[in-house]
Specification:
There is one protein chain. The chain is of the alpha/beta class. 42% of the residues lie in helices and 17% in strands. The longest helix is centred in the N-terminal third of the chain and has 25 residues. The structure holds nicotinamide-adenine-dinucleotide. The site of nicotinamide-adenine-dinucleotide (NAD) has 30 residues, from helix 1, helix 4, strand 7 and strand 9. The site of nicotinamide-adenine-dinucleotide has 30 residues, from helix 1, helix 4, strand 7 and strand 9.
Length: 357
């Protein structure tokens, strides 16, 4: 999309992470936008997830912590972006339970800094004809808490009832974004998405952890009885939803994004084991099926039982619908981890962290 006489400049925060890198790969592949990746390269940030970006003349990387207001100010002045996709966050629930402070700083204060700088930029340029600006905040369905068996799926109007420090910090940032829109007139888009899976996801999350533990012959941990239900969305489908929302929606709208794939955690794990049973000839430790490695562990405190998301608004208003169902998406994902061992071995062996220093 070209707006007026200029090519859009897109600033992505957290572009070295799982979803941010998928978004940047798509932007560099299929658009001529200028893309600036702002990332502090925390433990989940990995520039190897952007293998072709460095050779692209449309791409820049800025090593920056979004809590550092002064450095962010310089970046905003240098690039004057039209669109900010804000994905930088601390994103792992277990880590938020063990040490919540970083979640409060990055997810709340970092968002506050970005909102303030976005507002200054918007105010300085909004009188120009054809000027396009959106602050797109990427959030989670976890802000809604969990559902009982007979509850309706989460809707855009559902109450916020976050359970974990991670979800509470994301809920706070959602409230800040809405208030910057309502009080100061900042044009924003807010999306709340269900669990993503796909290539380049950091190995601590359920799906990559299951695949990699299985390949390496380690126990596959499953919390509690494994009956927690999550909705799963393939990451590239999320990326398409984000692009749809930012360029097609009216400003100051919020959309739920989901895959309509509500599955128990234990069934996700069993499905991965089945694919691996078919794909991997030599199994470790003389097991007959990868499912033999499943090990039930003490449940996470405050663990939400069920998430289910009603994504009918984005479908009806913007025509977005996911391309992958869980069966096709999970097969692609498992094959990707089997074919891209260098990427994850560097993480598991700690050599990527050393390279970053
Ligand atoms: N993964 C999911 O299933 C999911 C679902 C819905 C919403 N989300 C949201 O999407 C966003 C991205 O999630 P993800 O899974 O890609 O996360 P991720 O953990 O893979 O990536 C986060 C990125 O943010 C960077 N980062 C962290 N703190 C930073 C800071 N202070 N300054 C600058 N950069 C910093 C990290 O280096 C990393 O590159 C998050 O906001 C998350 O809440 C994720």
């Amino acid at each position: 999309m070209q707006s007026g006489k200029y090519i859009l400049k897109i600033l992505v925060t957290g572009g070295a992470g799982f979803i941010g890198s998928a978004l940047i790969r798509e932007l560099l592949k299929n658009t001529n936008y200028e893309v600036v990746n702002v990332d502090a390269l925390r433990y989940a940030g990995n520039l190897n997830s952007l293998p072709f970006a460095e050779n692209s003349k449309n791409y820049c990387f800025e090593l920056c912590d979004i809590c550092d207001e002064d450095q962010l100010k310089i970046i905003f002045k240098k690039y004057e972006p039209n669109v900010i996709f804000h994905l930088a966050a601390e994103s792992h629930v277990d880590r938020s339970i063990l040490s919540p402070k970083q979640f409060i700083e990055t997810n709340i204060m970092g968002t506050f800094n970005l909102l303030n700088l976005s507002l200054d930029l918007w105010n300085s340029r909004k009188s120009e004809s054809n000027y396009f600006f959106r602050f797109h905040h990427i959030s989670t369905d976890e802000v809604f808490g969990d559902l009982g068996d007979s509850d309706l799926k989460f809707q855009e109007s559902s109450l916020y009832r976050p359970s974990s420090p991670y979800a509470a910090s994301k809920a706070s940032s959602d409230h800040l974004v809405r208030s910057w829109g309502r009080t100061y007139g900042l044009p924003y888009i807010l999306t709340n998405c269900s669990n993503n899976y796909g290539p380049y996801q950091f190995p601590e999350k359920l799906i990559p952890q299951t695949i990699l533990n299985a390949i390496n012959g380690l126990d596959i941990p499953v919390y509690g009885d494994g009956n927690q239900i999550r909705d799963w969305l393939y990451v590239d489908d999320h990326v398409q939803a984000l692009l749809c929302a930012v360029f097609q929606a009216e400003q100051n709208q919020n959309y739920n994004i989901g895959g309509n794939n509500e599955i128990k955690n234990i069934d996700v794990v069993n499905q991965i084991c089945k694919i691996l049973d078919n794909e991997v000839k030599e199994k470790p430790q003389s097991i007959s099926s990868f499912a033999d490695l499943i090990s039930y562990v003490t449940d996470r405190p405050g663990h939400d039982l069920k998430y289910a998301i009603d994504a009918s608004k984005i479908h009806k208003e913007l025509g977005w619908t996911p391309n992958e169902n869980f069966e096709t998406g999970i097969k692609k994902t498992v094959l990707w981890y089997l074919d891209n061992q260098v990427w994850w071995k560097q993480i598991l062996q700690g050599t990527y962290q050393e390279e970053k220093k």
